[in-house]
Design brief:
Layout lengths: L6 H20 L7 H19 L14 H6 L12 H21 L4 E4 L2 E8 L7 E6 L8 E8 L3 H20 L8 H15 L6 E8 L4 E7 L4 E5 L2 E5 L17 E4 L5 E5 L1 H4 L11 H9 L6 H16 L8 E8 L10
Antiparallel strand pairs: 1-2, 2-11, 3-4, 4-5, 5-6, 6-9, 7-8, 7-10, 10-11
Helix pairs in contact: 1-2, 4-5, 5-6
Length: about 350
């Protein structure tokens, strides 16, 4: 029987116990202590089960409670198969609500900013997704558009919670940037530090974060993410990671890469749900095949380029069940300047 003994789950439980003890100590004399004491008892019992080696064992069937559910809520005692009908319906409603909230956080699919056109597709494998995708348009005419695409480690509800955490964090940090003083590497370093301090050991995310100005130049950094594909007339160039994933070390630094896109060039970003999509025999789609498809379509409209890539992925998988979240983004420099969203 597989036991769950992740250090960060225990750390989460111990932090909850500390917070509950602080709340009890600070409670006013008239405040009821029973709810705090009840929760404290549940936390203590969970830690005791961890010490006994029975943590993560279903109280009904003695099977294993799903790991992702334990990460989201370490006090869970029953596996999905043993949930009551009412509990299952409540869980389904929660997942539907979480899915609705997550969809509401996504940016517009087709964004125009100066000479840039950005289009993406975001395809969760289930109700919720651990993929992260955002486009942050500057408030002033001289600013740069920020693009982000990433993948949180894990799947399911726990990964989706971290995805929403990343969204709020980057939105907040980018909102405080200061025009010409804005530095992409500092944004990533601050985001990594905050992510490390607000999550538990073992939780991390790969990410590409970049900015598009008005001169045809893109600058971006990759926190351990898959290579970006620079689609140009001469062919496709893969641009690799410049640092470690977010959440691994609070002191990580990120080197910035700069590429100049000529009219008709594109930058293609994707998550591993694309490159690792398998056919019936388990063979992965691969970065090379994606590069070939994109390279044959230089100068294509970003919407059409993206559709061609996804169609080829579907041809490869031949209707096999989607095993992981899939996100694909195309950042394209148009032949003629477009209209900024702020104009």
């Amino acid at each position: 029987m597989a036991q769950v003994s992740d250090p960060y789950i225990r750390e989460q439980l111990e932090k909850r116990r500390e917070e509950l003890n602080l709340a009890l100590a600070a409670a006013a004399p008239v405040a009821p202590a029973a709810p705090y004491l009840e929760l404290l008892g549940e936390v203590d019992t969970a830690i005791q089960r961890m010490e006994e080696g029975t943590f993560g064992v279903c109280a009904e069937c003695h099977g294993t409670v799903e790991r992702q559910r334990l990460i989201a809520d370490p006090l869970i005692k029953v596996c999905l198969d043993c949930l009551s009908v009412d509990d299952r319906r409540a869980l389904e409603r929660d997942l539907e609500l979480a899915s609705s909230v997550q969809r509401g956080l996504l940016p517009e699919k087709d964004v125009r900013f100066s000479e840039w056109r950005i289009h993406y597709e975001y395809i969760p494998a289930g109700h919720v997704s651990g993929d992260y995708c955002d486009l942050i348009v500057p408030r002033d005419a001289d600013g740069s558009l920020i693009f982000l695409l990433g993948d949180v480690a894990g799947k399911g509800l726990a990964a989706s919670l971290l995805m929403t955490h990343l969204h709020a964090m980057f939105r907040s940090l980018s909102d405080s940037r200061g025009g010409a003083e804005f530095q992409l590497d500092k944004l990533l370093e601050t985001a990594n530090r905050v992510f490390c301090e607000s999550t538990f050991a073992g939780q991390y995310a790969t990410l590409i974060c970049g900015s598009a100005g008005r001169t045809g130049e893109l600058e971006f950094a990759s926190a351990g993410h898959l290579p970006a594909l620079f689609v140009r007339r001469e062919g496709v160039k893969q641009i690799g990671a410049t640092g470690l994933p977010l959440g691994m070390f609070s002191s990580s630094r990120y080197a910035i890469q700069r590429v100049r896109l000529e009219p008709g060039d594109s930058l293609l970003l994707f998550t591993d749900g694309i490159s690792e999509a398998g056919d019936a025999a388990g063979k992965e789609y691969g970065v090379k095949r994606l590069s070939n498809v994109a390279g044959e379509r230089h100068r294509w409209d970003p919407r059409e380029l993206l559709a061609a890539c996804l169609k080829d992925v579907n041809v490869h998988t031949s209707g096999a069940r989607q095993a992981d979240d899939q996100t694909l983004m195309v950042i394209h420099r148009s032949e003629t300047a477009g209209t900024s969203l702020n104009d």
